[in-house]
Design brief:
By secondary structure, the protein is mainly alpha-helical. Helix content is 69%, strand content 0%.
Length: 260
């Protein structure tokens, strides 16, 4: 997340992809444990998807009502934990208290592991809600149009998200500099990323890099899915405004002015 890299070596695109889904394979610490836990969660989600969410009759009658109710509570719980959590931890002195208690390295690894779980649940919770509230578009909206527009948004959003994350590095995606409350630079000494999509957009990861969620909602033809995608995107800008931008102005802007 954000405009500043914290890694000396950028991970390859495969590491970047799974990293945005909550699994850091580019780091040696707890790598096997991380991978086993992540794969276990994915397997559980897959089985739940097959056995419950997409089972015959799951979206109709009483089963459909229950699924929709659960999907709303699930998505809202993830929303509160994710955005409330990162604003509380990264935007206040909570991170320093955690580091004082556990030690800086252990504190960050614990934070990073929890954030990875939340990343995975963020995507799954939105997908469940979009499916549970699927086919809610007006009949006048052609299926071919929603599928075509959704495909474009998925391709564009995913491309820009991975491109941005690759350029800034996964440490930045996980807000390591904010947690440690200090600047970390590229190997060439620069802190501000100005290449790729950052040449044209101030924050492509939060903007165009999140439109794939709207694409999946269009695939499901879900009005409620579009709403939850908008809620999550607006909330990341709220985090940027109240926590990340003040940190950038305090830690990075003075360095940028001194080298200008």
């Amino acid at each position: 997340m954000g405009d500043f890299s914290e890694t000396k070596l950028r991970p390859n695109f495969a590491y970047t992809f799974v990293g945005t889904l909550g699994l850091r394979l580019d780091k040696p610490e707890w790598r096997r444990t991380r991978a086993a836990a992540w794969l276990g969660m994915v397997a559980v989600y897959y089985l739940v998807d097959l056995a419950v969410i997409r089972s015959p009759g799951s979206t109709s009658g009483e089963s459909g009502r229950l699924l929709r109710e659960i999907s709303v509570w699930y998505a809202l719980t993830v929303w509160v934990v994710y955005y409330g959590g990162i604003i509380t931890v990264l935007g206040t002195s909570v991170k320093r208290r955690i580091s004082d208690r556990l030690g800086e390295k252990r504190a960050y690894l614990a934070y990073e592991a929890v954030l990875g779980v939340v990343f995975l649940n963020q995507g799954f919770s939105q997908a469940v809600l979009m499916y549970a509230f699927g086919s809610s578009f007006p009949a006048g909206v052609p299926v071919w149009l929603s599928w075509s527009a959704g495909t474009v948004l998925i391709v564009v959003g995913t491309t820009f998200k991975l491109w941005s994350a690759h350029l800034t590095g996964l440490d930045t995606f996980y807000c390591r500099d904010m947690f440690l409350d200090r600047r970390r630079d590229h190997a060439d000494g620069s802190g501000l990323v100005t290449s790729g999509p950052y040449r044209f957009f101030r924050n492509p990861m939060y903007g165009i890099g999140t439109v794939h969620a709207y694409g999946f909602a269009l695939w499901c033809r879900s009005v409620e899915g579009l709403a939850i995608a908008a809620l999550f995107q607006c909330s990341i800008y709220l985090f940027y405004a109240v926590a990340e931008r003040p940190f950038i102005n305090r830690v990075y802007a003075p360095c940028a002015r001194s080298t200008a």
